[in-house]
Design goal:
Blueprint lengths: L13 E5 L3 E6 L9 E6 L7 H11 L1 H6 L2 E7 L3 H8 L15 E3 L4 H5 L3 E7 L5 E9 L1 E6 L5 E7 L7 H17 L18 H9 L2
Parallel strand pairs: 3-4, 4-5
Antiparallel strand pairs: 1-2, 1-5, 3-8, 6-7, 8-9
Length: 210
């Protein structure tokens, strides 16, 4: 699948659990366009091992995202009822109780497919019967969506590889720095460090100081 960078994020309406306890039937990214940035991340499946570490890690940094006007949203191919049950389970039993950001249900797998993170393909046998090739779950994809609904950053990890939530925050900072000052962010840039003008002179000036 071709990269979604620079393109409008695929829109959807799907059930989700919000505030850790309320099921809504028509959650959509459209509500954030013009108002908020979005970090939209996929994880493979509820009631697994690496996944709760990621969901709790995003919750622990949620205030930092909110300070930056960013909505954090999770998604997997489970149903909203599975999400609700997992959200009701204590952390010390492998649950994600205490997570308050929305978790979208992609039971049809169409959201994961449209974002290019579905870990399986559909093939057909000699009799024309469809079957899944690969795991019918989502890779660990993360998409940073700006206030116009455009995808500005994405990273997709294989199933065993957990993400770095601080890196997601760093990318938000980099995007917002560029939008505010028009300066581009060099390798390993973090908020508060020097950026540079997106010209050959700006690059030379930056490199001369570092």
């Amino acid at each position: 699948m071709r990269s979604l960078i620079g393109k409008q994020a695929p829109l959807f309406k799907s059930p989700a659990v919000v505030n850790g306890k309320e099921i809504v039937s028509d959650f959509s990214l459209e509500q954030f366009i013009g108002n908020k940035y979005v970090v939209f991340f996929f994880y493979p499946m509820d009631f697994t091992f690496v996944c709760p570490t990621e969901l709790h890690a995003f919750q622990e940094k949620l205030a930092e995202f909110e300070k930056r006007n960013v909505a954090v949203i999770g998604c997997s191919v489970d149903s909203e009822y599975s999400h609700f049950a997992w959200l009701s389970m204590d952390k010390n039993h492998g649950g994600i109780k205490g997570v308050t950001y929305p978790i979208v249900a992609d039971f049809s797998k169409t959201i994961a497919e449209n974002f290019g993170v579905l870990a399986s393909d559909i093939d057909y046998d000699d009799e024309g019967n469809a079957y899944s090739v690969g795991d019918p779950v989502a890779f660990r994809g993360l998409f940073l969506i700006d206030k116009k609904g455009v995808i500005r950053h994405c990273v997709i990890n294989d199933l065993p590889l957990g993400r770095n939530v601080d890196e997601a925050l760093r990318m938000v900072d980099a995007l917002q720095h560029f939008e505010e000052f028009g300066e581009v962010c060099p390798a390993n840039w973090t908020k508060g460090k020097d950026a540079m003008k997106g010209t050959s002179e700006g690059v030379a000036d930056y490199l001369s100081k570092h």
